[in-house]
Amino acid sequence: MRDPEDRLDLPVSEDFAGLLTTFMRRIRASASGVATEIGMSREAVNNWRHGLSLPNRKHRHRLVDCARYLRLSEQETDRLLKSAGFEPEYPVGGQAPDQPYADYVARLFERLQRLAPYPILMLLSQAHWGQPPFRESLLATARQLYGDAAVLHIRPPYSVEADARDYFTALGAQCGFAGVDSDFAFEAALERRLAAGERVFCLVSRFEQGEAHLREALAGILRGLSEMYSGKLHLLLCGGEALAELKYQSGDLSLLNIASVETWPDPGPAELRALAARQLPAAQVDAALLSRLERDCGGHPALIDEALRWHAVPSTWDQPDLSECLAGSARLWEGFVPLLAEAEARARISAWLTQASLGRAQPYLIDRLLRRLFWANLVTARPGADGLQLEWRCEAVRRAGRQVIAAWSDAGA
Description:
- The protein has helices at residues 14-26, 31-38, 42-49, 60-69, 74-83, 102-114, 135-146, 164-175, 183-195, 212-228, 241-250, 254-257, 269-277, 287-297, 301-311, 319-327, 330-336, 343-352, 368-375, 395-410; strands spanning 120-124, 151-154, 200-205, 233-239, 260-263, 379-384, 387-392.
- It is an alpha/beta fold.
- The protein folds into four domains: 14-83, lambda repressor-like DNA-binding domains (434 Repressor (Amino-terminal Domain), Orthogonal Bundle); 102-263, P-loop containing nucleotide triphosphate hydrolases (Rossmann fold), CATH 3.40.50; 269-327, no CATH class; 332-410, Arc Repressor Mutant, subunit A (Orthogonal Bundle), CATH 1.10.10.
- The strands form two sheets. Strands 2-3-4-1-5 form a five-stranded parallel beta sheet, sandwiched between helices. A two-stranded antiparallel ribbon has the order 6-7.
- Strand 6 and strand 7 (387-392) form a beta hairpin.
- It starts with 13 loop residues before the first helix and ends with a helix.
- Mean pLDDT is 87; it is low at 1-14 and 93-98.
């Protein structure tokens, strides 16, 4: 039976069906389990698996949820999205070992190692960066500093149905610990490493995922071992909006309360050059291109990726054409549309779109609407005369906002 929300106007992609089936089998996920996690019907998921239909355009976010439930890497997530005809979720900041941001990553680890008595750092990133961005670069640097065997990478399971046994068995397997089937066994295995005098680095991706009580158990273990073996357990907790909310709004997790905060920076000229060199011939990566990317993309990773793909096609771009094309980016519309459902929000954002500055930046934005704009990567913090100021990322973002508001108005909303 076909789900009426599925997309049948596009050719069926056998690659999508095959990829989805492969990823589901890898963790023994059932169609009903996937359907429950992402809010779709079991029939719809089975139709995807059997190549009978593709996800509807408005259900891209559900496919992203599916990727998280299936514990896919950023690279695998983008493969699945592309096979279904969607834009990638992580256009930059993916998997290749030779990454930009080498200097920043080096400084990040220098800061982590200087933190005392608890070398615990939260690395927050806005939408469309990987979580963490350039993960392989982070892990490669960690292996150089700590040694291969002392570097662990934890990815808490996304499933809301996982019990404590499943949760800590998965974490134990990720760390290479044998015989872990409980929180106690996981803590004991990690403690044995620390008790032997070993300095251990642990990268925790998407700490905020999963059930709250399991997250609290993991946080308690890491906090307790950090106190018992001061300076031995180095933690880098990576995430975005949800992780920031756990620290600033919840206050229940002492691990986050003692963690220092770092925000992933916008790309500078060196990063833009390195990103461009991955997609364009060297002769094309000149000062004019870098200036255009900085001006028209405003540091937005998805817009940088789109602009580079357009420049890879023989053509002559000038500023108005490129900015106008970027304003039509689906990634910008995906950011704006959920924020504009209420008339009051549309009125506030419409007024902000006329302003060059949206006010002073704060460690955690109290205004919820501004905060959502920030984590959607539509606004950013930049230096101003009175300190860091919130600004729209670029003119393309402002154009996109006006277009979305106009569409609401045309629809009579």
